[in-house]
Amino acid sequence: MAHTNESVVSEFVLLGLSKSWELQLFFFAIFSLVYVTSVLGNIMIIVIISSDSHLNSPMYFLLSNLSFIDICQSSFATPKMLVDFFVEHKTISFEGCMAQIFLLHSFVGSEMMLLVAMAYDRFIAICKPLHYNTIMNRRLCIIFVSISWAVGILHSVSHLAFTVDLPFCGPNEVDSFFCDLPLVIELACMDTYEMEIMTLTNSGLISLGCFLALIISYIIILITVHRRPSSRSSKALSTLTAHITVVILFFGPCIYFYIWPFSRLSVDKFLSVFYTVCTPLLNPILYSLRNEDVKSSMRKLRNRHVNSWKN
């Protein structure tokens, strides 16, 4: 990943979340707990779904892939952030910075598309239940996951193709705990207005397009559920509530960043933390605590291990 001869910046300085030693210790304790819980929780969901034949359905196949993306998203920058709490001079190489930009946008783009696929799965399950098994077969699920990763990677490459050759010739301080694309672009020794517009358009189109598709899908689903008897709609509503909560908490900060990507406030740093560290924790919390099938599988898996230990 070479950069042009005009670039003399070989590393970037990450200013982190705070310069206070006490606050950094506090953040380390909190974010370590959140990160470990997030990774273990998502691994648990993948293990439960893969080990229980009763969860061998398209919804859970997509959910396990969502958990995998969440593990990746929480791990692209968080481990370095935790280590940097104990380092006075927080730096990252030029190549490492570009890698963080690539990974973040790949994972976020993939997750957006996967959430749309999960909404489509719920749409077919609730609005066309008699055709569900015919339409939502394993082949279509694999296609959905493949498209999600392809779109995420293409979305990321389109950003990186322009960023990697920008002339960085002096300023190298990034006011965040990771290489945030808008903050890195601002350090280039050139007029970055066109780059800012391209970034806004690229990211805005995919996030807004996915968000609108999700809103329309869930409105249609909610109308369909509302017309059904309450006894049949309670389980559907429970599942939908988890889906809609994840969508709102995922897209909320995302759309905020893309509406004002180059006008940063001090609170934006902590929204970035929520987006990259805390959001991946939503998947295991919302889907495991609200889903009776997952909770039942958790109990069976736990009992199986308890019995194996006793024997």
UniProtKB/TrEMBL annotation:
The molecular function GO annotations come to: G protein-coupled receptor activity; olfactory receptor activity
* CC annotations in GO: plasma membrane
Topology in the lipid bilayer is annotated as: Multi-pass membrane protein
Key words, A-Z: Cell membrane, Disulfide bond, G-protein coupled receptor, Membrane, Olfaction, Receptor, Sensory transduction, Transducer, Transmembrane, Transmembrane helix
Q: What family does the Swiss-Prot or TrEMBL record give for this protein? A: Belongs to the G-protein coupled receptor 1 family.
Describe the function of this protein: Putative odorant or sperm cell receptor.
Q: What is this protein called?
A: Olfactory receptor
Species = Callorhinus ursinus
- High-level lineage: Eukaryota, Metazoa, Chordata, Craniata, Vertebrata
